[in-house]
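Entry for pyridoxal-5'-phosphate complex. Fields follow.
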Amino acid sequence: MRGFSTRAIHAGQDPDPTTGAVIVPIHASSTFAQDGVGGLRGGYEYSRSANPTRTALQECLAALEGGRHGFAFGSGMGASDVLLRVLLKPGDHIVIPHDAYGGTFRLVDKVLPQWGVEYSTVDLADVDALRAALRPTTEVVWCETPTNPLLGIADIAALAEVTRAAGARLVVDNTFASPYLQQPLALGADVVLHSTTKYVGGHSDVVGGALVLDDDEIAEQLRFTQNSVGSVPGPFDAWLTLRGAKTLAVRMERHSDNAERIADALAAHPAVAKVLYPGLPGHPGHEVAAKQMRRFGGMVSFLVAGGKEAALTVCASTQLFTLAESLGGVESLIEHPGQMTHASAAGSALEVPDSLVRLSVGIEDAEDLVEDLRTALDAAAS
Ligand SMILES: *Cc1c(COP(=O)(O)O)cnc(C)c1O
């Protein structure tokens, strides 16, 4: 198999056969001319079912995750919804991480119960806790690693073994790591999910989702269900995502460089009570992360010593880190999960500490980012 960046730039992206265009065109057409009834020229008939720009993205994403089948969606949640419609039926049980992405928790906690699906929340850093949570009806184990926003690490290979022995399927939400840093299918996962809104797109200018898997039968059901419910990206969104994917490797290296520098600087600042970053040797998941990830990524969370008010002051005091939800773009973002991304988890098993601050470290100059955080922390400490 060719190297990661070669696949990112070429997989699914041969020059256009009719014009020679080096870049896959934005095929902004809802329908495709037929040569006689049923005579499809390139296999396309209607863009909900399939569109050539989307096909290019899907082939690229499958190549990046090392899977046989790729599907692109209008959002990460659109991908999750279609996947769970296929994998679950009434009476089934799903295990989700105790600090799952808030939107995933909402889907499982508010939407799926209406369809008779039950769930448990488990700290998937603890394989024995997963074993204890499995039921005869468990069909899906849903894993995120690193987790959001606590940056917990789960051992994908160990979870895959336990999940397979129980006759269930392991889904890995690989959004935080990106396919460059972590390859769940090679570690035994059945399906990989992405919010391509984040690192794959990488420029905070498009919302999208993806699924990659090897299993032909599940792939066929996904194709059928996606077409039936219609959660597809438009051709312009697919094109932007494909454009972002080309530079994924160089961006992830730089995100990781900058995050490492920032984690060290935060750990040395008296206004910080604790830094959560899997690249730090003291992180409880450090060894597992070092085993299954190429590097440790661009997400850093920390607890502010002064509590909630001090955490809010830090969030309000940065100049370069923009106060905003989402992550994975070239620009640095800061947020307060307790009142922003994870506000809907208040009072639930997924509630997060109110002194917690989450950073999506961008690819600006590290010295400028460190200086910005130092100034904001000084403001919170005074
Ligand atoms: C953003 C995100 C999602 C949801 O994706 P959307 O594109 O916002 O629908 C799922 N999982 C994780 C880890 C995310 O960060």
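NOTE: Residues 249-381 form a domain with the Aspartate Aminotransferase, domain 1 fold (CATH 3.90.1150.10).
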